[in-house]
Amino acid sequence: MKTKAIRDPKIIAAWQLAATGSKWQFKLVIASLFIAFLCLGFGIFLQNIFVIGFFFAMAFIALAANAAIRLNLACPHCTQCPLNPFILSQPASIEFCPHCFYWLKSPW
Ligand SMILES: [Zn+2]
After folding, report:
1. Is the pTM of this model over 0.90?
2. Residue 47 burial by CB count (10 A; 0-12/13-18/19+): exposed, middle or buried?
3. Nearest C-alpha neighbor of 29 from the set 104, 77, 91
4. How far is the CA of 26 from the centre of ligand 1 (A)?
5. What is the pLDDT of residues 66-79, one digit of tens each?
6. CB 102 within 8 A of CB 6
7. I need a surface site. Which of 1, 65, 95, 102 has the fewest CB within 10 A?
8. How many angstroms does the Cα of residue 22 sit away from the middle of ligand 1?
């Protein structure tokens, strides 16, 4: 395993450009997740099955938007997606690609 990441200004610039383009998608994921859990809470509180149904709809939108980010974003060096599928993180905040260890953000 490599312990030192490689720094290439071209890779960093390319990633930052791609990540800023997906910012609104990330906001959509956060917003739909927020509404989904709000609906779940209200649905249980009001004991209304339709509101709980809305939770599934919003959760689906969140998953679809998250999948869209994953499909559209790839590491400019190894073309694999550097996002962790289990952690919801903003693409622009990712520091390096876990596949090829290239910096995606300037370390200094
Ligand atoms: Zn990579």
Report:
1. no
2. exposed
3. 91
4. 20
5. 888 888 889 999 98
6. yes
7. 1
8. 18
